[in-house]
């Protein structure tokens, strides 16, 4: 089913998480015994399948994406992977419109894979959404090596550098940058 979801992502021109990143997401969800996970950027459901595998069997994945077609593929992929429909809550919309409606300290893990220009805003929202001991995770922070390239870079890369600095300097977070896929930035909320 992962292959099916990956194929749909490729057709739609979306980048789904790599197998290594997926395996790390499963581990991270299991490490916090996640009952409630928020995902920004459903895509066709590749990351969601990994997260659901790591979560508690009664855990619910809340996943946000402005593209209903992407979420429709993910819904099919979750079902075909054997997850009951009540394991996922699909919210259509842009993250910064939807996240303010989600409960304070109601989540064990927030996975950010939406618009990289908004990652700093996702960090602020995540700090509010996470319970103490919860994890925030950002996908793709290497930007194919451009984050550490000294040449001129687009705004997206400059924003990623700001994110890395903010997470490193935050007194509220214990961070680690995992070199899987295109860079997975993880941090535990104290
Ligand atoms: C890289 S893909 C996500 C891939 C997915 N996590 C996976 O591994 O299968 C990025 C997704 O973010 C969605 N997206 C773009 N802007 C967004 C926003 N402002 N809020 C939430 N999702 C957004 C896109 O529609 C797309 O489906």
UniProtKB/TrEMBL annotation:
<keyword id="KW-0489">Methyltransferase</keyword>
<dbReference type="Pfam" id="PF01596">
    <property type="entry name" value="Methyltransf_3"/>
</dbReference>
<dbReference type="InterPro" id="IPR002935">
    <property type="entry name" value="SAM_O-MeTrfase"/>
</dbReference>
<keyword id="KW-0808">Transferase</keyword>
<protein>
    <submittedName>
        <fullName>O-methyltransferase</fullName>
    </submittedName>
</protein>
<dbReference type="InterPro" id="IPR050362">
    <property type="entry name" value="Cation-dep_OMT"/>
</dbReference>
<dbReference type="InterPro" id="IPR029063">
    <property type="entry name" value="SAM-dependent_MTases_sf"/>
</dbReference>
<keyword id="KW-0949">S-adenosyl-L-methionine</keyword>
């Amino acid at each position: 089913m992962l292959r099916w979801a990956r194929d749909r992502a490729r057709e739609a021109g979306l980048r789904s998480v790599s197998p290594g990143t997926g395996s790390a997401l499963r581990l991270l969800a299991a490490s916090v015994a996640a009952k409630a996970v928020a995902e920004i950027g459903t895509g066709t459901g590749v990351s969601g399948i990994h997260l659901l595998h790591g979560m508690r069997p009664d855990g619910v994945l809340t996943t946000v994406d402005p593209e209903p077609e992407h979420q429709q593929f993910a819904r099919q992929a979750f079902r075909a992977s054997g997850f009951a429909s009540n394991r996922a809550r699909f919210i259509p919309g842009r993250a910064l419109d939807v996240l303010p409606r989600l409960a304070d300290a109601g989540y064990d893990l927030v996975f950010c894979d939406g618009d990289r220009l908004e990652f700093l805003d996702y960090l602020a929202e995540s700090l509010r959404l996470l319970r103490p001991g919860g994890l925030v995770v950002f996908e793709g922070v290497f930007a194919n090596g451009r984050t550490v390239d000294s040449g001129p870079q687009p705004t997206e890369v400059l924003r990623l550098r700001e994110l890395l600095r903010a997470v490193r300097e935050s007194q509220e977070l214990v961070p680690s940058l995992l070199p899987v896929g295109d860079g997975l930035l993880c941090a535990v909320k104290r």
